[in-house]
Fold this protein.
Amino acid sequence: METARQELQKVAKRIQPHIHRTPVLTSRLINEIAGAELFFKCENFQRMGAFKMRGATNAILNLSADKQKKGVVTHSSGNFAQALSLAAKSLNVPAYIVMPDSAPEVKKAAVRTYGGQITECPSTLKDREETANRIQEETGATFIHPSNDLDVILGQGTAALELLEDHPDLEILVSPVGGGGLIAGAALAAKYFGKDCKCIGGEPAEADDAWRSLKSGKIETNETANTIADGLKTQLGDQNFPIILEHVEEIIRVSEDDIKEALRLIWERMKIIVEPSSAVALAAVLKEKERFRNKKVGILISGGNVDFSRLPF
């Protein structure tokens, strides 16, 4: 699949003028606690505060001029709603965002700031999909899925690609797992740009559909997802799952306490604000220290969009 290697390079070049190349930070203290050398790729410093800006930008840039004129539509209550809105605004493309009426006001306000046109609907997936379909029919806009879209996956993979360019000798790359877009992109980057670099996922035990999917070989779902890592409640799709199945070594499940402990460590020791979903990758490393001992490990910090009215501390 040499094309995946070339595609990732092409995508990185294509989106480069529209995104930040985010810093890679280290912490001597966290290295001591983990017993490993950790390199944090800080996508909390990305435009709109999360890695999703990469995939959204790539997906829009890949549309024809005619399609761009008609706009893009997605359904999301979180970071992808903001990412698509800002990417579309930067490229002069209309963005129609379907959000559940239960979404926090702070998230709706952020989407409006970035120029997204919000349509609210009940929070079931069925309602979201029907509303997005209706907007598509009315406007001719192109639907872009937050994680189950190859252009989006390749865009997200550029975060791991940059990390491997800065630190080519990483032995393991750890990514949080939610909808599967980031870890699928990261796994491709690890395979084609790492030197025998393995890709491992971290996932909340309270929303462990990807862990179960990797075991059963088919896409599993969650009945409930009672986790503070609210960005990881979504499930895998038919575009990203085959990549995950083939290229992700393992997924490590972490408890809510594990996530809070890792989150506190990053806030207190690294002095950076990250959202709970971002702490899941570090939580996985700290939970299974033996596996990572003395290794060089890349950790994808997925975003920093924290709802300060609902802090876990």
Q: What stands out?
A: The CA atoms of residues 34 and 65 lie 49 Å apart.
